[in-house]
Amino acid sequence: MKILNNKLSKTLSSESISFVSTPNKGGEIIPDSIIIHFTAGRSAESSVEWFKNPEAKASAHLVIDRDGKVIQMVEFNHKAWHAGVSRWSDRSGFNNFSIGIELDNPGRLTKVNDRFYSWFKKEYPKDVVVEARHKHEQEISYWHNFTDRQIESCFNVCKLLMENYNIQEVLGHEDIAPFRKNDPGPAFPMESFRAKLFGREDDTADVYKVTANQVNLRTGAGTEFQIIDKLQSDTKVEFVKSKSGWFYVYVLSKNIDGEPLYGWINGSLLRKA
Ligand SMILES: [Zn+2]
């Protein structure tokens, strides 16, 4: 697999790559981030059909099937409509600088009398069900798994994109649109995926826990800044950046009026989760 004129192309005849065009796209972009999604759909084919439909007003650069097959729909230097209203750290409007990868997966499943159903009422066997807690939620719930071939294919594509574009970050849709989106969810191994991609040794390097009660979350890196919220011991936060002993973090499992909660915490009040 290689990238030629902003499109994937085969280097081996055994690779399964195709291009299906869509009108759901915008002007040129310079991608610097990758956003991982699940389709919440019935199949890769049905998701591709939907992304071709002008009424969908949605698309992605790539759709990856459960067998690892890759379908590209938008050139990597053009805007796809996958992120919606989005924000991470101090950036917003991710469609303007990110590549969207959709993994075929029905998403969250509902358990009824020991059987598992998607939102579109299809039943799935127990062996595809992952029982896990979403990082934005308190309770454990049920999620459809991703296949190894699908994750491997996604990894190979991300690696190739990093070689061809100045990719700085790989995030989930749930990171840039928390409380509105829950994909790719806990069945996707995001921490180890990113660690492997960026060559980080510690695959949980990004998550910290608050070590005391009533810890101040502030608008800036210093005690002179305004307090946004107070966090309890063991609250998990995701590291975004640091400045003179203070950490700018994203608070997991907590929001204010549906808005993601970001702020500065003194580094001495955090430890690796
Ligand atoms: Zn999404």
Automatic annotation (TrEMBL):
Its EC number is 3.5.1.28. Keywords: Cell wall biogenesis/degradation, Hydrolase. It catalyses: Hydrolyzes the link between N-acetylmuramoyl residues and L-amino acid residues in certain cell-wall glycopeptides. One of its GO terms (biological process) is peptidoglycan turnover. Residues 205-273 form the SH3b domain. InterPro entries: Amidase/PGRP_sf, Amidase_domain, NAMLAA_amidase_2, SH3-like_bac-type. One of its GO terms (molecular function) is N-acetylmuramoyl-L-alanine amidase activity. It comes from the Bacteria. CDD domains: PGRP. It is an enzyme of class 3 (hydrolase). This is N-acetylmuramoyl-L-alanine amidase. It comes from Chryseobacterium endophyticum. The lineage of its organism: Bacteria, Pseudomonadati, Bacteroidota, Flavobacteriia, Flavobacteriales.
